[in-house]
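Example 3.
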Amino acid sequence: MKTTGLWSRFGANVTAYGTTLIFLIPVYILINLSIRPADDLTPPVIPSSRPTFDNFITAWTTSPLPGSILTSLIVTSISCLVVLVIGTMAAYPLARSTSRLSTGTFYFFMIGLLLPFQLALIPLYIQMRELGLLGTVWALIIVYSGVQLPFTVFLLTTFLRASIPLDYEEAAQIDGCSPLMAFWHVVVPLLRPAIGTCVILNSVGVWNDFFTPLIYLSGSGQVTIPMAIFQFVGQYTTNWPLIFASLLISMVPVLTLYLLFQRYVIQGFAGGLKG
Amino acid sequence: MSSSGVEVPTRSGVPPVAAELSKSRRRRRRVRSVGRDLWWLILPGAAVYLYVVVVPTFQGMQGAFTDWSFATVGAPNFTGLENFTRIFNTDAGPAVLRTLQLALVVVILQNVIGLALALLFNGRVFGRNVLRTIVFAPMVVSALVVGYLFKYIFGPPGVGGVNQVLAALGLETVDFLGNPTTAMIIIIVTVLWQSIGGNMVIYLAGLQGVPAELEEAAALDGAGYWKRFWFVVRPLLAPAITINLMLGLIGGLKIFDQIFALTNGGPGNQTQTIATLIYSYFSQYADYGRSAALALLLAIGIAILSIIQFSVLRRQERNS
């Protein structure tokens, strides 16, 4: 909304910066605490008098973080790729076919957006145990491939319906493309913005998920990043500077990704949900 | 949305137009079959969806009515509603109520504050893109990490950040997480700090769809800020409100990571919610039946609330 007048503009700026500062206080405490020695007991709002990077070195060398980054990378990339491939394939006929069966199938997928994962948790747990996949990254990859699918199908289908006119495929077919070629060479490239949104939202979701690895990886040597944090915090309950250093390390990958793609993350987040 | 003033070609009008229309309609029908020719593209997705989501969900629903546990050999026995009566006779009854309260408070605050922030950051604020980026950033960080960060900030006297500041200022310290009421407030604050950027962004996207001319016209007619907001902006934000309320409520009912990190359901089980209890029945007691029964309650709750919300909000969207 437009605010007119110098005073109201001034007020809006002050409020906006004040609010942002409030949002930044926890971040300031996080950084400030991570660079102070454990025996420094001054309140966390006072800048550290003896800043040190020792906590980061200790956290990196004694926590399971280094290995967990690799595990998280494997799980996130493979499951997001699988979701994207099968999701795009499914979204195309769902968006284009107007038959009742197709509409029904779309809504059937959408039910998955509402179902809490907890309901499928135990049967899947037993299933993974029987397959011998419990404690391996494969259990996670399979679970995420299914759980992330409804959202991806929803986003790609609505995007296809709303933003890609049939004319393109029509033209391609008149030029001699088979339906499959028209899909691959015409539709998939046009879907790129929605695919980008799916990649970002799915990978942030999988990367940060704690509940699923807590169930399917616990007891095994393999850990994802949130699990590594969980174990590390359990081990050093009172050494907050050390814990905060490890929290910061764990945030670096996802925050870097966010800052690089922040415009698309925010756009995708808003636009993707707008349909 | 009436089309008065727009010339609509009718079939009884000029014959060539009609012919052209029916031709394009025929062609359209032919191309529509693209989807049907390629129906098999759905198969891999449908298979994974059925295997990971649908079938286990049904099995979980069945399991809710059995004495299923870690020790069960062979098929578990059907026990009817026993799991549900046990749930309501133990600490889960209050947890169900608490979950509803938590979700409700979170969703209201998310939308009020999220909308206020969106209005603020949509105005003429210097460097507003940077500010938006900062407010949204917690969204992409793991909820568990955020939980631990706030666990320190609101930790007990002598340890917690806020308490150290209070002590340094000579004020009385508070054991925030040791008291059920303040612990719930801290859980809400933590969830809000992390999630509000997302609500703000959805509202910002909605505000982009509000034409400046409309607002200017209203301003010329003498409408003040609140009148303009209520009668011009708010109706156009209806879809954004719907999405934020739906996602907020579903998310609010499922909050797990932050509680797990902050209180792990304590003190004395007084911050347990459905999500944390499902996990503790599963992991501590390996009582699969009870865990599944609770998950079923969560699913039913989400379904009912979503349906109510969806129909109410849809009607409102149509009215405005």
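The mean pLDDT of chain B is 86. The longest helix of chain B spans residues 288-319.
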